Amino acid sequence: xxxxxxxxxxxxxxxxLRQNLIVILGVATAYAYWAxxxxxxxxxxxxxxxxxxxxxxxxxxxFILAGNIMSRGGMASRLIDLMTSLTAPIPGGLAIATIMSCxxxxxxxxxxxxxxxxxGTLMYPALIKAxxxxxxxxxxxxxAGTLGIVVPPSIPLILYGIMTQTSIGxxxxxxxGPAILLTSLMLTYAVAQNFSHRESSWDFSYIAKSLRKGxxxxxxPLIILGGIYTGYFTATESAAVAVVYAFIVxxxxxxxxxxxxxxxxIRETTKLLGSLFPVLMIALSLNVFLTYEEVPQNLVAxxxxxxxxxxxxxxxxxxxxxxxxxxxxxxxxxxxxxPMLMPIAASQGIDPTHFGIIMVMNLEIGYLTPPLGLNLIVxxxxxxxxxxxxxxxxxxxxxxxxxxxxxxSFVPEIALFMVD
Length: 420
What we know:
Elements: H1 2-16, H2 21-36, H3 43-52, H4 59-72, H5 75-87, H6 93-109, H7 112-129, H8 134-145, H9 155-164, H10 168-174, H11 176-193, H12 204-230, H13 235-253, H14 259-292, H15 295-306, H16 310-327, H17 330-347, H18 352-365, H19 374-383, H20 387-393, H21 395-410, H22 413-416
């Protein structure tokens, strides 16, 4: 009993000392093996190797590489031109174009932060110049930038699938409905807030030109999801297809990337993976240990005594995850919590795929909440605004995202209507 009490004290102390996640997770895992297991800490390596011997892990570096290739090329500017040409005559057209560009680029890059950087640096000055309120421009870009977290291909969804042994393909398909819902809610708010803004009339020659330039970027998510949904390739194979497709488009069609650029992008991706994969390996090892020690099963039994219906379970877990999202980044939260929370949800009859979407949407909100909201921090540097100015600007969009979260939580068909 005393050994169990030491573990949270050690973790809290490391957090207060601002230690890196890999240090915290490594120390916690080693202590768990030593105090509660057979005392052989070297088993961490054996369990990590066994757990990581999965082809699906290859999809993570490949999707990240594909997203980086597109960010280095001209896909972002082409998507913005296309969306702007289509929405110019509509009230709040540039605001609509901003959110739609974020949604489209998120579906291409799979990253919320990359989307914010790629679209935000181009659209923020355009919105301000067109007379849109600064607080709306900041809030829209920060919030719409998070759509990359739930729009497939999503790295958090892949991590959830790996940690809970849930089908990645099903998670990708299940993310489509919630992504459309969130985008629609943001678009409705954008029109309501900026109804007096009209940029110009439709220029069909410009639309055709923009479509010709942007069509290759729009086709990519259709190819990936279509291939997975029809069974032509797996999630891992789709990641390889994404890399090849992105490089062909950027190098041969757009002619904005050469082999030297590809080498630089691979080097940058490798550096990122150097920080991600050690954490993932340790988390997988801890997952094996917790399963062997029947921790999730015991937690499910304990929670089942306290929670007797799915509604209470969803409300409790949602509140818990929103609080966690304020303090821990999405990848870390999924690696640590998904294996323990998913069985609890399943015990209340909540579909594991549906719960994966709920978990990612909860943690998506964490990108916009202090003190550790990643998009808030990135936006502060990109837009040169004060942290609390950006926080206030995102409040209306936080409310929108909470409405979307509650809707998806209690109407599972939004996520599951296309899942077999």
